[in-house]
């Protein structure tokens, strides 16, 4: 059944793009397979990357791009954009280059095999470069699509709508698993995608069709912020009730970390003005960007964090302390090869004299610094944090609407959540890519055949010798020649 689902999606994805405009098809073409295709399963192809959930999403997008190129072109012409930040584009190029350089560097710097008792870890070989680059390309494709096609506030609102709708649907499946136990994946695909025992928490923590219950909790956090942003932007009561329901499900889903991040994000979103919201997300992005160094230098208040966890649950505090001790040991090993890391094949992990793997590396940050070193870490996390770090600069040239601020808060939550977990998903890449597009491009207005960027288009905030009413009338007449853009259908 799992094999059939993956192969079937490669047929369904182009059909989706045939039926819908490019932007809605892109949104549904990432959200639907991410939320419903099988986890922990892959179709092995000799000499080619495996087809799993993530690669199936990317292959579906590439097939659609090849078959319906005109639709993607039309999506750009309907809302034309102009490049407004060459420095940001340079930063993105640099981060992508560092990511590729780390792959080559890791292979060149790990030519020796490692032996731990009876366990032999192979050396990296030249052809590992090709497979690693192919995997990386498949991994970040949603980011590249989103950067170009989800660059405007209108597309951000469409993204939030799809996330909210799918979040509401997922809450119904979560209620089934909260009541009956996490069984849906086993019922549909015939196997558990993760340990069942980890999802018994004074009741059941739902997994649905995602990798782990923690991933489900983070997606519901994302949907909660999305619904709250739609309510703030549109003032429609249905989005308020959607946000309230999603927050309630998040609260009962037994995901303490996602719930805490959700409370923090909602407090920032509704309690602070725009400038302070931007400052908060920028501060978090800077901390995460340099987190391994801050952790090694003991600037992260580990003891205080553990003490706070102990006030909630002694068992949770013990589990957290065990994980932190593991991360300290893994970080010490990672800095034996600080620039390029240890590469794949579990070479970054710790083995005892019996050849047994005794380490736990669940956080995305420790996985990246261990396997790819500082070069790979700055490449990956620079790619994720750069759109957030540029928001203060962007704010000087254009307003940041609630929809975009919500994406920034979701990105902030994702960065925090990647400290203990590896929740960098295709939906995450869509969100970070949409932020990158907003920073890099400005919406251009076409007046009399001339394209104006946000810097040169008529602006009512500029000084003018005309009285306010006369000036407004002049600008309305100018913009009326453009025609109105069609709303995005979701």
From TrEMBL:
List the transmembrane segments.
7-31, 51-69, 90-109, 129-146, 158-176, 212-231, 243-270, 276-294, 374-394
Q: Which UniProt keywords apply?
A: Membrane, Plasmid, Transmembrane, Transmembrane helix
Polar residues bias: start-end ranges? 478-490
Q: Where is this region: Disordered?
A: 463-490
What name does UniProt use for this protein?
O-antigen polymerase
| Organism of origin | Roseobacter fucihabitans
């Amino acid at each position: 059944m799992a094999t059939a689902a993956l192969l079937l999606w490669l047929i369904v994805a182009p059909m989706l793009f045939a039926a819908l405009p490019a932007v809605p098809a892109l949104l549904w073409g990432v959200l639907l397979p991410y939320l419903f295709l099988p986890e922990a399963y892959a179709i092995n192809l000799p000499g080619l990357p495996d087809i799993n959930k993530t690669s199936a999403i990317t292959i579906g997008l590439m097939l659609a791009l090849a078959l319906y190129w005109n639709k993607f072109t039309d999506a750009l012409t309907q809302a034309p954009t102009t490049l407004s930040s060459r420095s940001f584009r340079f930063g993105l190029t640099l981060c992508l280059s560092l990511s590729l350089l780390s792959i080559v560097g890791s292979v060149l710097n790990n030519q020796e095999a490692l032996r731990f008792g009876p366990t032999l870890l192979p050396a990296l070989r030249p052809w590992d470069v090709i497979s690693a680059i192919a995997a990386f390309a498949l991994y970040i494709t949603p980011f590249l699509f989103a950067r170009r096609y989800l660059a405007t506030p209108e597309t951000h609102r469409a993204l939030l709508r799809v996330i909210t709708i799918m979040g509401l649907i997922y809450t119904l499946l979560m209620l089934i698993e909260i009541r009956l136990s996490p069984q849906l994946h086993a019922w549909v695909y015939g196997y558990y995608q993760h340990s069942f025992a980890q999802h018994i928490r004074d009741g059941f923590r739902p997994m649905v069709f995602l990798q782990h219950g923690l991933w489900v909790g983070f997606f519901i956090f994302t949907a909660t912020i999305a619904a709250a942003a739609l309510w703030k932007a549109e003032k429609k009561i249905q989005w308020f009730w959607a946000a309230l329901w999603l927050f309630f499900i998040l609260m009962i889903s037994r995901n303490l970390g996602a719930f805490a991040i959700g409370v923090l994000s909602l407090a920032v979103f509704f309690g602070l003005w725009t400038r302070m919201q931007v400052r908060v997300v920028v501060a978090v992005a800077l901390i995460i960007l340099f987190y391994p160094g801050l952790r090694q230098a003991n600037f992260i208040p580990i003891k205080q964090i553990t003490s706070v966890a102990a006030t909630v649950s002694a068992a949770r505090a013990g589990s957290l302390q065990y994980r932190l001790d593991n991360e300290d040991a893994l970080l010490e090993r990672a800095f034996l090869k600080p620039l390029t890391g240890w590469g794949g094949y579990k070479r970054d992990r710790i083995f005892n004299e019996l050849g047994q793997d005794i380490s736990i590396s669940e956080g995305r940050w420790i996985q990246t610094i261990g396997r790819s070193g500082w070069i790979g870490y700055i490449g990956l996390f620079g790619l994720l944090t750069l759109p957030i770090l540029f928001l203060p600069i962007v704010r000087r040239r254009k307003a940041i609407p609630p929809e975009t601020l919500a994406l920034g808060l979701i990105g902030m939550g994702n960065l925090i959540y990647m400290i203990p977990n590896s929740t960098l998903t295709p939906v995450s890449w869509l969100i970070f890519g949409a932020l990158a597009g907003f920073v890099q491009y400005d919406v251009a207005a076409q007046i009399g055949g001339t394209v104006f960027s946000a810097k040169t288009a008529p602006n009512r905030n500029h000084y003018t010798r005309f009285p306010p009413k006369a000036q407004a009338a002049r600008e309305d007449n100018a913009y009326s020649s453009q025609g109105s853009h069609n709303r995005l259908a979701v």
